[in-house]
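batch job 7 of whatever, protein = Glycosyltransferase family 34 protein
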Amino acid sequence: MHFALPPRKTSKPPPYLPRSTRLPGLRKTRLKLVALVALVFLALIFLVTQPSSSRHSAPVQRVPRGDPPVVLVTVLDEGKYGRSLTKSVVENRLQYAEKHGYKTLIAKVGDYDLKGAPFTWTAVVAMRHALTKYPDCRYVWFLDSSGFIMNPKLKIEEHVMRPSRLDELMKKDFPVVPPDSIIKTFSHLKGQDVDLVLTQDKGGLSSGSLIVRNGEWAKFFLETWFDPLYRSYNFQKAETHALEHIVQWHPTILARMAIIDQRVINSYSNGDKEAEYKDGDLAVRFPQCPAAGVEACEAETESFVQAWRRAFADS
């Protein structure tokens, strides 16, 4: 009987051929592609399901609640106006603020480090301080210590800052610095877009009584105004001339600024007929007082002090 013999093993086996790695490589590539497609698909679903306002609107800025409606800012300089008059100014501000639910920020010359700049720059720092201390206020009204609030019945948010009222008050296409500045106020500006309200006198813009609407623009404006370059430039009228410069050379500021008649917030005790105080005006200022001296200043203001006290007592 014959049995089949197993195949003879050769002493020269065939060369070793490694397994092909092509197939696993293809699998990895496909997995990556599938993962990428899935991510894109999920991203599209996320975008489609989001509200249109969240996809297209700009970041929402914080809107002050209007608590308090107004912060009344004044910087005292007893050396210029004397103790008696300074005391009357503080009393005047506190009574007016209490009547309307406003707050006050009453600073003194020397309260802030101005890095060697003239003390009149304190006004700008005090306004910045007011926005920090009362972040939800709606307006800041700066009224310097040379004046009194004479009509306690008038409220800033209605007498000046109401949009329809501003539409009536503001001077459009009007020279920023009188009499013939080539830079003029915007002709198409609406009251609702105004963030800074100023007046002029014969010398130019007046910084003794102004109103700023609280918000991101107000912070930008005050930071620009207080720039170290302007403080060190040695303007003749310090912060007032710096203000005239920035409103003429910064369109971002000019675009939010309104100039109104002087008597609305900034009557003078004497001067031109258009500027001179009349009964019923909101405020009166005495810009010549410092040059006249303390005694002359007290004499000039005495009748007005009596008048505002009577007006407040009757209101």
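notes: The chain has one domain: 70-314.
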